[in-house]
Predict the structure.
Amino acid sequence: MTGYNELMQYQIGLMRKWIFGAGRKAPPSLLVPALVVAAAMFVPLVYLVARAMQADRQQLVTLVFSSRNLELLINTLLLTGGVLAIGTFLSLPLAWLVTRTTLPWRRLVTVLAVVPLAIPGYVMAYALMGIGGRYGVAARLFDLQIPNIQGYWGAVIALALYTFPYLFLNLRAALLGLDSSLEESARSLGYSNMQIVRKVIFPHLLPGLLAGYLVVGLYVMGDFGAIALMRYEAFSFAIYNQYAGAFDRIYAAWLSIMLLALALSFVVMEIFVLRRRRLASVGSGSIRPAKPAVLKKLLPVAILYLIVVLGSSVLLPVLMLAYWLVLAPPDISIFLQVPWTFVSSASAALPAALLAVVLAFPLCYLAARYPSPLIIWMERSAYIGYALPPLTLALAMVFFALQTAFFLYQTIFLLIVAWTIATLVLAMGPIRSAILQARPNLEEASWSLGYGPIATFFYVLLPRLRRGIIAGIVLVFLFCMKELPITLLLSPTGFNTLAVSVFTRTVEGMMAEAAPFAAAIVLFSGISVGMILRREKAL
Amino acid sequence: MKLFTWYVSVISVCLVVLTGMAQASELTLYSGRGEAFVKPIIEQFQRDTGIKVNVRYGDTAQLAVLIQEEGQRSPADLFWGQDAGAMGALANAGILATLPQDVYVGLPDIYTSATGQWVATSGRARVVAYSTTRVKQEELPQSVFDLTRPEYRGRVAIPPTNGSFQAFVTAMRVLHGDARTLEWLEGLKANQPKIFRNNTTSVAGIADGEADFALVNNYYLPRFTATDKDYPVAQTFFADGDVGNLVNVAGIAVLKTSKQQNAAVQLVRFLLSPAAQQYFTTVANEYAVTPNVISNPDLTDTKVVLQAAPKINLDQLADLEGTLNLLRRAGHL
C-alpha cells in the first residue's frame, strides 16, 4: 500500500516538474495568459484535422502519397536553403556595418534596411520580373538585353530581398547586446581575430541567427505570392492550387498538415541546437559596447555593398512604383483616398502589434526563467500560427468563429486576433533575445530588496527589454500593413486597408491605379519604422 | 404606467419597421471582381433602386472556398466570380439558388448555367496570339490540336498554372475526352513549349522574342496595343467551333441562404441591363452577354465570337481536379 502511495507521489512530482519546472514555481499570472495563447494556436490544428477527416480515402492516396509530393518537398527545401544563404549574405555584413563601424549615416541605413519588410511581395516580384526581357525596363531605358528573372532564382532572390530584414534585425540586436569585454579578454588570452570570431562572436550570434533563420524559413515555406508569380513549384504552391484551382479545402488541409509537420521539425531542431547555452553575462556592471572600427580602405567596398543591397531591396521596387505612377498617372481623387485608407489600415495593425507584444512577453519570460517541458512546448506552439499559409489560418478562424462565436464573425476584433496568432512569433524573437541577455540576478536583487513582481517588471525588466519590445512592435506592424489573405477573409465587409486597395486594383490588371496605395504602404511604413527606431534611444 | 406601455410599443414598432427596412434594403455581395471595376456599376444600382449593397472584395477562388466554409451561416446574398469554374463548383456544392427563368432565357447557351443557378455577366475568349514579325499568315494554326506538329516546336507559349488556361483544358476534356486531351498535352509537352506564368507575360514573351505563338485570353493584347501601336503581336481565332476558342465568363449567382432573394435577383437583372453591359464591354474589353450593345472597337464583333466559340456546358468546367491530374501526368505541373 505504501509502495503504491509512493509511486503516486512520485508520478505527481514528475507531472509537477513537467508543468512547473524543477526550480521555482512559475507564477500563475504569467502561466494563464501563456496557456491561452497556446490554446489559441490549437484552433487551426483542430480545423485542419476536422477537414482532413472528410477526405475520400482513394483520392487521398493519390494526392497525399504521390511521388510528386517528394519533389515538392525537395523544391521547398532547396528554396528555403537558397533564401537563407542569400539572406545571410545580405544581412550579416549590414548588421556589422551599422553596429560596429564608423560608417556615416548608420541610423538612416538601419531604417532603410528594415523598409523592405514594408514592400508588398508582389511589388518586389513584379519589380524583378520587369527588369529583364526585350520590353523590360533595362531594355527600354538602357538598351540592355538581360534574361528574365524567374523560376528558382527569381523566387529565391525575390524572397531573400524582402525577408532579409528579419535576419538583419536579429543580428543587429545580438551585436548590440554583445559585451565587448568578452572579446577583449579573449584577445588578452592570445586568441587571433579568426579565433575570436569563431569562439566568442559566432556562439553569441547563433541564437539570433537561428531565430532569424526560423522566421525567414517558415515564411518562405508558407508564402504563396512570390512563388506563384515566379512559377516555382514548392509545397505552398500545391496548397494554393488546391484552393485556387479545385476550390478544395480538404486536400488543402492534408497538404497544410504536411507543411506544418515539416515546419515544426525545424522548430524542434532549433531547440536541440540551442540546448544548454547560457549567454547572459554573470559579471557585474552593464554591457560595454565595442569600440567602433574605423573603415579606411574598406569604406569604398562597404559603400558599394550598401548600394547593391539597398539598391536592389529598396530602390528597385520604389523605382518600379514610380514607373507605374509616371506611365499612367492616376486621377487625383485616388491620391485623396490614400491618407484615410492608411488610418484605417493602421487602426487594425497597431492594436494587433501591441496585443502580439503583450502576449509574447509571458511566453518568452516563462521559457527563459522557468523552462519546464510544458512551457517549452507552449512557447514552441506559437510557431503554428506563423508556419501555416495565411489563407489556411484565415479559413480556420472562419470555422472557429462560425462554430463557437458567430457574433465575432467578420469583426475587427477577430481580424486583430487572427493577425496576432499569425505574427506572435515575430514579436517573440526580439523579446526572447532581450530577456536572455538580461541577467536574472538583477530581478532577484530587486525581489530581495522587497519590491514586488509588478514593480520589478516596470523598474528592472522593462527598461532592459525596451529594444526587443520596440523591434517586436515594428515587425508585427509591418507584417499587418501589407497582409492580404487574412484581411480579405476576416475583416468586416467594406473594411478597407492599403493592401486591400492594392489588391482590388491589380486583380483587374490596373497597376497604375494600385501604385499610389502600394507606394503609401512603403512610405508610411518607412516613416513609422523611422519614428519607432528614433524612440529606441529616447525611451 | 400607461404612458410607459405606449412608449414601449411605439419604440418596438419602430424597431421592427427599421430592422425590416434594413433587411429589405441591404444586400451583401462577395465579389471576385476588383473594386475599380465593380464600384461604379454598384453605385449606379444603389442610385437606381435605393438598395444598399455591401461588397466584400477578394480572390474568386478564395471567396468560393469561404462561402463553402460559411455554409448555412453565410452573410452573403450574392457571389460574383471571375470564371465559370468557380460558379460551377458552388452550383455543384448545392449552395446556389435557382434564378427565375426570364433572367437567362434568350441568352446564348454559352452564357448560362444549364441548371439556371447562375448567369454570365460578361465573356472573354481564348485566342491564339502571334508575332507579326516572325509568323507568316499561312503558318497560323486552324486548330489548337495543330500545335503538336513539328513546325510549332519550341515556338508556343503556354501558362499551365493559370486559371484560364486550365479552364480551357477542362473544356477540351469535356468536348474530346480525357484520353485525347492527355495525348494532346503530352504532344505539346514533347514539342518544347515555352512556359509562362500568365496571359500577360505570355503576350509579352512574344514581343520579347521568346515565343512566336501564345494561348491567351482576348483582352490582354489590347492593354499593350493601347500604349504602343507598333506592338509586334496580333491575335486571331482558330477555325469556328474549335475548343481553342473557348469563351469563358464572369458569372453571378444568388445564394440559397439569402433572406432577400427578390432584391438579390434585382441586382442580377441590373447587371444584364444594357447600361451595365455597355459598361463591361467598354471599360473591361470583355464581350457583352446581351445584344443591343455598341461593340468595343478593340474587340472582335460579338457575332464572330459566338460563331467561333465551341458549344459547351459551362457547368462542366468545375472539374479542375481532373484537369490538374492530367496536367501533372503530362508533366506540365
